[in-house]
Amino acid sequence: MFIMNARAFLERENDGQTELVLQTRNKPNEPKTLELPGGRMELYEPVLDALRREVMEETGLTVTEVLGESNRIDTESISPQFAVECVQPFCAYQTIHGPFDSIGLYFLCRTEGELLASGDEAKGAAWVPVAEIRRMMERDPLQFSNVDRARLMYYLRHRGLEGKE
């Protein structure tokens, strides 16, 4: 099985701290792990449309800004029968071992609205300080979903927070 995902680092500044949205994965017959919002893209669904849809379905938040979105290019006006979209993600991943192969694109986003208590296959969405996420990763990285663990490590390194107390 092959899966393509659009996923989000939903960031905000609050009281001088950067926070991200974390939620609990709530799928039947799957472990309850912490994860970042996002999920599967539909066939031929534009990446940023999928990102906005997944964030809304899972968290209730509206994506208002995607870092790099202004660089988006598509060829729909040139050839509507075969259009291609190019976007600039924050990072990308591919599973290199596991029960299925997946590739995903992660985007840094700003949002507006109120968090849902429970969304599509997710619950307990909350704004968590990045410093606390780093401590959580150090204490027990397995509490995070298999898909998000490496991306959180990448994010923390990018933000200069890897291994700092």
Looking at this structure, what is the CATH superfamily? Nucleoside Triphosphate Pyrophosphohydrolase
Poorly predicted regions are none
Radius of gyration: 16 Å
CATH overall fold name:
Nucleoside Triphosphate Pyrophosphohydrolase
Distance between the termini: 40 Å
> What global shape is seen?
globular
The overall strand count is 11
Please tell me the total number of domains: 1
How is the main sheet built? Answer: 9 strands, mixed
Structural class: alpha+beta
Q: What's the CATH class label? A: Alpha Beta
Number of helices: 3
Task: Explain how this protein is built.
The protein has 165 residues and is an alpha+beta fold. The protein has one domain (2-158): Nucleoside Triphosphate Pyrophosphohydrolase (Alpha-Beta Complex), CATH 3.90.79. Helices cover 22% and strands 38% of the residues. Strands 1, 2, 3, 4, 5, 8, 9, 10 and 11 form a nine-stranded mixed β-sheet that branches. A two-stranded antiparallel sheet has the order 6-7.
Topology of this protein?
Elements: E1 2-14, E2 17-25, E3 34-35, E4 38-40, H1 47-59, E5 62-66, E6 73-74, E7 85-86, E8 91-94, E9 101-112, E10 118-119, E11 122-129, H2 130-139, H3 146-158
Parallel strand pairs: 1-9
Antiparallel strand pairs: 1-2, 1-4, 2-3, 2-11, 5-9, 6-7, 8-9, 10-11
